[in-house]
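TOKENISED FOLD:
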Amino acid sequence: MRILAGILVFLSLGLSSAFATSIVAVRNSDEIVIGADSKTTLTLVQSGGQTSLTKCKIVQAGDLFFASAGSAGIGPAGLPGNISPEFDLKETIAAELRGDGTMKEKVDRLEKVLVADLTRIAEKVKQDNPSFFLQKFVNAPVHTVIVGGTDKGELVLMVRTFSLISSPFRPLSFVVGRFTCPGDCRGPFVTIFEGRTEEIKEYLQQHELFLHYADPVTAVRDLVGIEVEKDPSSVGPPIDILRLTRKGAEWVQRKPLCPDIQQGPSGDRGSGGG
């Protein structure tokens, strides 16, 4: 068993969130289960005011599915603080994952696009609001993407984490952390949690055998639920859960905002939020 933990930093130019996403994914030999909360709480950096959005954070992109923690433009474009009226990071991710090629080829292309976009955003924020840049862009991952699907008949779970390298003597750049299972995991079972994870980590420290006995759906539901119960004003219900097998994908539970799963290679054009 291997547990991969991450930290959520939600970013939009002039906006931040207080770790307002919790995502858990479990993979074994037979299935991948992904769960996410529904609430995104935005804080206006200048005024301190807050607003909340309900989002479907698990998104279909062709024959792949993804969820992400951290953003730099969530769409729709009308939200104050977006870097440009056309920029929507979730749609950028979905567009790349709908492309041609193997799962790895799609994710490799996505890496390059996100590095370019995130670098552009980081440069803009550093210029316009240096203190906000230091607080939110430095010393924590800026964005993490979890992608699940089948590749050559194998259930594959990929994680890509984008962290900023900031130096007064060099241009801004990003380093990409990569984790793929099968491949980087020691066995067929892996649990990944991203975003707001403090309560999850504490719970697993106190209940060391939980992941050995809980089925994947129960594990995902309970772990996301722990964060929701701790602070529903930031990590809010309902919890959406998607199950992937070699036969296809199905919603275990979802809110009406999450679109039906589209069968076939074209997939769904619906978008989600982080």
About this structure: Residues 2-253 form a domain with the Glutamine Phosphoribosylpyrophosphate, subunit 1, domain 1 fold (CATH 3.60.20.10). Residues 259 and 270 are 7 Å apart (CA to CA).
